[in-house]
Amino acid sequence: MTRFVDVHNMVRWVGHHGPTAIMAGLVGYLEDDFRRWSSFEKSPRVASHTPYGVIELMPTSDMETYGFKYVNGHPSNPARGFQTVTAFGVLADVHNGYPTFLSEMTVLTALRTAATSAMVAKALARPDSRTMALIGAGSQAEFQSCAMREVLGVDRLRVWDTDPDATAKLVRNLEPLGFDITVAMSGKDAVAGADIVTTCTADKTNATVLTRDMVSPGMHLNAIGGDCPGKTELDPAILDASTVFVEYPPQTRIEGEIQNRPEDFPVTEFWKVLTGEAPGRTSDDQVTVFDSVGFAIEDFSALRYVRDSVDATDFYEDIDLVANPDDPKDLFGFVGAFAPVGG
Amino acid sequence: MTRFVDVHNMVRWVGHHGPTAIMAGLVGYLEDDFRRWSSFEKSPRVASHTPYGVIELMPTSDMETYGFKYVNGHPSNPARGFQTVTAFGVLADVHNGYPTFLSEMTVLTALRTAATSAMVAKALARPDSRTMALIGAGSQAEFQSCAMREVLGVDRLRVWDTDPDATAKLVRNLEPLGFDITVAMSGKDAVAGADIVTTCTADKTNATVLTRDMVSPGMHLNAIGGDCPGKTELDPAILDASTVFVEYPPQTRIEGEIQNRPEDFPVTEFWKVLTGEAPGRTSDDQVTVFDSVGFAIEDFSALRYVRDSVDATDFYEDIDLVANPDDPKDLFGFVGAFAPVGG
What transmembrane ranges does the database entry give (chains A, B) (predicted)? Predict the structure, then answer.
């Protein structure tokens, strides 16, 4: 049987532990997997682009466990009452190819994306960072805020979104949790005085939510929303004046902010910062950019974390996804020997 | 909600209609989709190879519906009590990216593989074909036999397998269904006098289960088991003396029998035979080869068929795979507002 965490059980599981504790746990699993980055099989995700949006498959393997995520990205979905991003994922045993674990990942992707941002900011932002600007108050915004507070102690938020309802929703969700929130009048206003700037907008355009003049020395830019060809958020001049960290360069050069820069634009693979093979932040004045697009290994870490966490609980059920005939060569006997034939 | 056909319901559904009727229905859906081949988004499957076997993702889309299959191939599995091939698949709506249908595909892949062979043999084998040689009596063998009988009237089988238990299983399954079965003493003996030769062995080697001298004029060779780099079944000299038909050349050149031939080895895309854009069999003496590796569009057809067939029945259940908050931008409120935070 295959273990299955559906939406209901995912929400129960998150409710039981709390999103912040889960993201803290995810940071640990992510750091473990980023440190053994070179042992994973890696490939750019397989994307099917249409005018509506994109559907992607993101596989990876550590040669013991195989995992993949199905995920879509449809910027016009919220206006029609759908989620921008929905996802589910699978783990399988490499030795026999059997799927062992299936999970909803709409909620889990939100948690792992914020946990990844927090892991990177913990390594790259100035240690005294307290204030985060949020450009975009959509689905990711609260998760980013809780993860950054847990990992770095960031508890002052400066928020800007073109949709006042989204901003109101963020204030409604985060004020009771003790955040000090300023609703900004513009992106420029939000960014003023921030230590960390998180851009998480959903428009599928080469937008410029952040211009060069808005960036101050010492900032860490956590660029989440530019994750697709033709979908970026930063003035490319910011990249030229920063040190840019990425997950997996072959994918980021297609999908990230650096798609607006030449093929040989210098980047640092973030896993090398964790292993000590590359420097992270080297001065208090440096501007660091995490050009985040989301990589399969992060989903692998997240699926591993849920699988391990729900073991021996009732937060999963067993489903019958793999046929298991007594004689593995007798699939026909298993399904059809006594069925009508020729009808 | 997403509709889910698990193994139990798949077996019930197959039992209800009978595998032969289902394969006949599948041939219809396959022909429809092969005729509109050029309207599909196509890419070679994404394979993760290890010494144990392979795990693959096979996506495709007709721009209205997106589908993919997860499938493994582990030749050593049966010796350890596992299926060589297990699979499941998903259909999703392209307009919003939501997965709508999830199905087991271990059983379904067996049905669609045989239905595909039958569709091709119907177009390429001599119309008077009555006798099929089967080299390999594993999971595929009975499905191939039933599909070929349904579509072409082939009812005489000549079977050879190195595993006498597999042969005995085939006889046990097919004799009650009225097939005239000869258990051959060798591959050469099996092939003698056959109109159609189906090779469906599982060894992951460049084997030669069929040599040039075993092939007679007018035969149709249905080469199923060569479907992976380093896994072929035919003496390459057979290919030189035949007309070779394939599903999707970029994938078949990597995985099929023609991997043992130069990059520019001439092949005919089978869909063009159905649309009349390319000739099929042009003489009674011609040897035709279907170099079958299995392509994503066949799984798409199969998933469509099951989805349509189980509609308004109890052969599926609804599962909760996609989070659906009232406010699509308020995923945090959906999962975490009232959960403990900071713990």
Answer: none
